[in-house]
TrEMBL record:
Keywords: Hydrolase, Metalloprotease, Protease. Transmembrane segments: none annotated. It comes from Thalassospira xiamenensis M-5 = DSM 17429. CDD domains: M48_yhfN_like. It holds the Pfam family YgjP-like. This is Zinc metalloprotease.
Length: 238
């Protein structure tokens, strides 16, 4: 069942599901509010819950609206692109052989037999980001598997509209946002640990915070850094 409530100037989408706890989310870029609630709850009960969280909701919406956005990449010579939090200038080469992306000290170089349209260049970059992200993510997963004494069955990489990562504890699967390849590597490490700890604790309560503090004492600062970086220019409609 799905319904919508207006609480003052805040609209809330409510989805009733076969779940145990209430989940509140505020999504970029405009601060859309969604509440997933157990099927046994009434609309009025959800309204009371939303009112109790109204100050927090407005605070999150304000942060999202103030957050900088990436400009769409045009894939022109000397355009800025990012890899692992570092800025590179784009260089386009034409040469025989397979189209590929390479990285030097200050440049990201795309080489192809003939000039490519923007979509072709973008697809090559996404492939490079995906390969780089998977390799580094598997390193971090292996580290935390040993540290936490658990196994991740599958790691999925995709362009996610509203999250940096998600997980399925029952299946022992993790999904991470492709755009993490553009952020500092410690941000990827933080997201992987975050999702793997959800295998133990399903929510973000005191026990979850305790585990984060134990395994990554500086995680709050890393999260702040990640959330302060520009969001992707993609349409975040969800």
């Amino acid at each position: 069942m799905h319904t919508r409530l207006d609480i003052g100037d805040v609209s809330v989408d409510i989805h009733f599901k076969n779940i145990k706890n209430v989940h509140l989310s505020v999504y970029p870029p405009t601060g859309r509010v969604k509440i997933s609630a157990p099927e046994h709850m009434t609309v009025n009960s959800v309204r009371v819950f939303a009112i109790s969280k109204l100050q927090w909701i407005k605070s999150q919406q304000k942060k999202l609206l103030a957050q900088p956005r990436e400009m769409p990449r045009e894939f022109l010579e000397r355009e800025s692109h990012y890899l692992w939090g570092k800025r590179y200038l784009l260089e386009l080469h034409n040469a025989k052989g397979k189209a590929e992306v390479s990285v030097t000290h200050k440049k990201i170089v795309i080489t192809s037999q003939r000039p490519l349209a923007r979509d072709g260049l973008s697809a090559l970059m996404d492939d490079y980001y995906r390969e780089s992200l998977r390799a580094k993510a598997l390193e971090f997963v292996g580290h935390w598997e040993k540290r936490l004494g658990l196994t991740v069955n599958k790691l999925f990489i995709q362009r996610m509209k509203t999250k940096w990562g998600s997980c399925n504890p029952a299946a022992r699967n993790i999904r991470i946002n492709l755009d993490l390849a553009k952020k500092a590597q410690e941000c990827l490490d933080y997201i992987i640990l975050h999702e793997m700890l959800h295998f133990f604790v399903p929510n973000h309560g005191p026990k979850f915070v305790e585990l984060m503090d134990q395994h990554m004492p500086h995680w709050v600062e890393v999260r702040r850094k990640l959330n302060a970086t520009p969001l992707s220019h993609v349409d975040w409609t969800y």
